[in-house]
Write a structure and sequence with these properties.
The complex is a heterodimer of chains A (528) and B (245).
Chain A (H helix, E strand, L loop, with lengths): L6 E5 L3 H12 L3 E6 L15 E2 L11 H11 L6 H21 L24 E2 L5 H18 L4 E4 L1 E8 L5 E8 L5 E5 L2 E4 L20 H8 L4 E2 L4 E9 L4 E2 L2 H6 L5 E5 L2 E5 L5 H6 L1 H11 L8 E10 L2 E2 L12 E3 L17 H21 L4 H4 L2 H20 L6 H15 L3 E2 L1 H18 L13 H25 L8 E2 L7 H4 L1 E8 L2 E9 L2
Parallel strand pairs in A: 1-2, 1-9, 2-5, 9-17, 18-19
Antiparallel strand pairs in A: 3-4, 6-7, 7-8, 10-16, 10-20, 11-12, 11-15, 13-14, 14-15, 20-21
Helix pairs in contact in A: 1-4, 1-9, 2-3, 3-9, 5-14, 12-13, 12-14, 13-14
Chain B lengths: L2 E8 L8 E8 L6 H10 L27 E4 L2 E4 L12 E4 L6 E3 L2 E2 L2 H9 L19 H7 L10 H5 L12 H12 L7 H8 L13 H5 L6 H21 L1
Parallel strand pairs in B: 1-5
Antiparallel strand pairs in B: 1-2, 3-4, 3-5, 6-7
Helix pairs in contact in B: 5-6, 5-8, 6-8
Classes of the chains: A alpha/beta (528), B alpha+beta (245).
């Protein structure tokens, strides 16, 4: 019989993180959540796609089995079937839950939740909330967080950045080290389990991505502390994005699925889409998408053709987990885009938030179940372990703030993105990838000579940015190395020198391990 | 090579004094103020050629959906990622939001907004993560409250509002937009009276003087004065009810 509550740490305040928190809290855990930004500013808010659920209200004979089938097929048979089936089965409940929490899903004239067909789906099953589904989900979840925090049922650490896991003598995770991004204080926090929900890594492609902020620095740190990484070579490419000065906006697919009359021409490697002839009703249905386009480009969508190009949209790999979201490090769990279970080689439009939410709920449950039989394990870890890990991080910060060198973090980060883009965003080939790999190895060496412009010990974003770059470079190198190794084309991984899918050899999960800078790729896990 | 001049009001920490610094960054077609700030981070050279520190500012989505990069641009509160350099007279003057405590340079602490939401009961109390069916909501009702769901909590309405200042507890129009949204939501309305009571306290709806600047500066075009009007009516009715019942 436990004498104290299970202590859980959740890292990341996006859709997966907050659901992990709610799920663990409901199971009686004492939960602390750490995030660098308030939930309303998390990258989850950018989700323009809706959320899929086989509600079958359109008389099309939809079913969770069909939803599962579409997901597996869209993922080009790289996603394991059981977790996908569980996710699709839970989807209708999740839509209802979100609706009750305050997400204003579009309604039909009768007043029930309206469903759209996303690219890749065989049925209409995507519930969408006008005004950006992601934004509304995060607003609702932020509300839940505020409510529980006001009741002092949970602890919220906003403006804290994850630096390191605390591993005991067995290599099990018993807490984590975080830094306050304002006063730069570094502190150790003990817990019986840690759930990492820090998002994906598509941002390593820089402005050639739809989310430059998501660079995977936190999962890189876990990877460098021994957690296996799955399918790093897979990054979902969105073929219909609008190029902006700072990132790409993935809006084009809505215009295609309306089935409205559009003319498009293909020039070079982009599409020019003319939406001016779209039906009036559809123009009003997608008014929010058009207004997003207007704000992003400063241009009117109906006055001249919309130029659409491919960009890195969403990372599909992440920390390897089993179906319960436990990573290869005992006591460490991962959910949302920080993990890799549901999308396979390409995500079905509308499954993204669904997978994050479902995964978060699962991980919350699993982490509490894991700790149930352990006794107060984190209490058994001597404080010297926490102190040593904390001191190590403090020393790293102090070292970086003092560093002298001629290299510039932002320039290196930009060059890293350029190297990755030259290796191929949508279309890759081994020669280009290998050349990119060499450039990345040089960038890694040059990083050792990078020094900060800002040496202040208050609100110093640059120091954190520099520390993140170290992990980002490892993920970039991993992505390229795994892409070189996988000699086939599957889903978003397209190689001109190996254009066919090779199930016999490659219907396996890529599992990567990092040890002192060396990457080891394992392919023993077959997909079933 | 064309360059763009920016004059930025900096401050190293809350207890320090502010100072101005001028920068010249390379112009590119379609660039935003966010682009310019990122260029400065990459190469923080002041306009006189001296090496300086990167300008600290808050950003997340870079696409107008998260509200992080709100700041004063040429005297008007706007989102840096959605403000195009081409549309601005030069030099571009950047200052932090003035109605929130400063952290450093252009970064401010907007926690007060979320505290106001929490104190006003601006959340929905569900039974938990279990599942019960979603409500039927008439499409017209839905369309009436949809505009309020666009709020990104950027704080621009608070920045522009004359009633938000050191002498008052008034939080800003975002609070009313959000409270109105939740009061109209089928499950949110269970807590309607609690929210109305909270809004009748000091710093609540009675402190709105009807300037309507909030509505004109909102980057999402939310009809905030409509929310304020409806809440004004609702709180009036509620206070009468409380008097007699």
């Amino acid at each position: 019989m436990r004498s104290r509550k299970t202590k859980i740490i959740v890292v990341g305040g996006g859709s997966a993180g907050i659901f992990a928190l709610l799920s663990a809290y409901e199971r009686g855990a004492d939960v602390s959540i750490f995030m660098t930004l308030p939930p309303r500013r998390a990258p989850s808010v950018c989700e323009i796609n809706g959320i899929n659920a086989a509600l079958d209200t359109k008389n099309e004979d939809d079913s969770t089995w069909l939803h599962t089938k579409d997901t597996i097929r869209c993922g080009d048979f790289l996603a394991p079937e059981k977790p996908v089936a569980s996710m699709c089965a839970a989807a209708p409940r999740i839509i209802n839950l979100l609706d009750r929490m305050g997400v204003l899903f579009d309604r039909t004239p009768e007043g029930t939740i309206d469903l759209y067909r996303s690219l890749g789906s065989s049925r209409r099953r995507m519930a969408k909330a006008t005004g950006l589904t992601g934004r509304q989900v995060m607003a609702a979840l932020h509300g839940q967080l505020l409510r529980l925090a006001a009741l002092e049922k949970i602890r919220v650490f906003e403006g804290w950045e994850f630096l390191s896991l605390v591993l005991n003598e067995n290599g099990d995770c018993r807490g984590a080290i975080f830094a306050n991004t304002k006063n730069m204080e570094i502190k150790a926090f003990a817990s019986d389990a840690v759930i990492v929900c820090t998002g994906g890594y598509e941002g390593i492609f820089g402005s050639k991505s739809t989310n430059p902020r998501r660079t995977g620095a936190s999962i890189a740190r876990c990877f460098m502390q021994g957690a296996a990484f799955a399918n790093p070579e897979f990054v979902d490419i969105h073929p219909f994005t609008v190029a902006g000065p700072d990132k790409h906006l993935p809006v084009g697919d809505f215009f295609i699925t309306t089935g409205s009359r559009m003319d498009y021409l293909q020039e070079d490697q982009h599409l020019n889409m003319d939406v001016s002839k779209m039906e009036k009703r559809q123009k009003s249905d997608f008014a929010d998408i058009f207004s997003l386009y207007r704000g992003f480009t400063g241009e009117e969508p109906f006055e001249k053709p919309i130029r659409l190009v491919a960009a890195a949209n969403r990372s599909l790999g992440g920390l390897w987990t089993d179906a319960d979201h436990a990573t290869s490090v005992a006591g460490l769990f991962a959910a949302g885009e920080a993990s890799c279970l549901y999308h396979g080689a390409a995500s079905l439009g509308g499954n993204e938030l669904l997978a994050s939410i479902f995964g978060g709920m699962r991980a919350g449950r699993s982490s509490v179940e894991y700790t149930q039989g352990l006794g107060a394990q984190s209490d058994k870890t001597p404080s010297s372990v926490f102190d040593a890990t904390k001191t190590r991080e403090e020393d790293k910060n102090a070292a970086i703030i003092r560093r002298e060198g001629e290299e510039n973090t932002n320039a290196l980060r930009r060059e890293m993105a350029e190297a990755l883009v030259s290796g191929g965003v949508a279309i890759k080939n081994n020669n280009a990838l290998k050349a990119a790999g060499e450039k990345l190895a040089q960038i890694k060496d040059r990083f050792a000579k990078a020094s900060p412009f800002d040496r202040q010990a208050w609100a110093n974003d640059e120091i954190f940015s520099m520390r993140r770059l170290e992990g980002e470079i490892e993920i970039a190198r991993l992505h390229v190395a795994a892409a070189v190794a996988r000699d086939e084309s599957r889903g978003s991984h397209i190689k001109t020198d190996f254009p066919k899918r090779d199930d016999e050899k490659w219907r396996v999960m890529t599992k990567a391990l990092w040890h002192e800078g060396e990457l080891k790729l394992d392919y023993s896990e077959k997909i079933i | 090579m064309n360059s763009v001049t920016l004059k930025i009001r900096r401050q190293d920490d809350p207890s320090d004094l502010p100072y101005w610094e001028e920068f010249a960054v390379e112009y590119s077609n379609g660039m935003t103020v966010a682009t310019a700030l990122k260029l400065i981070s990459a190469s923080p050279l002041a306009a006189d050629g001296s090496r300086t520190r990167p300008v600290v500012w808050e950003s997340s989505c870079l696409g107008g959906a998260c509200g992080a990069c709100a700041m004063n641009i040429n005297g008007r509160a706007s989102l840096a990622c959605h403000t195009f350099v081409d549309d601005l007279p030069k030099p571009i003057v950047l200052e932090p939001l003035s109605k929130f405590p400063l952290i450093r340079d252009l970064k401010v602490d907007r926690e007060a907004m979320f505290r106001a939401l929490a104190n006003t009961g601006c959340f929905i109390e569900t039974d938990g993560l279990g599942s019960s069916p979603a409500e039927r909501v008439p499409k017209s009702d839905h369309e009436n409250i949809e505009p309020f769901a666009a709020c990104i909590m950027c704080g621009i309405c608070s920045e522009a509002c004359p009633q938000v200042n050191e002498r008052s507890q008034f939080a800003g129009a975002f609070l009313f937009g959000w409270a109105h949204l939740l009061n109209t939501h089928p499950i949110g309305q269970n807590n309607r009276s609690g929210r109305l009571d909270a809004l009748m306290r000091q710093g609540g709806i009675a402190d709105c003087m009807g300037a309507k600047v909030c509505e004109s500066v909102c980057p999402k075009g939310i009809p905030l004065s409509e929310a304020i009007a409806k809440l004004g009516m609702a709180t009036t009715i509620r206070s009468i009810k409380r008097l007699f019942w």
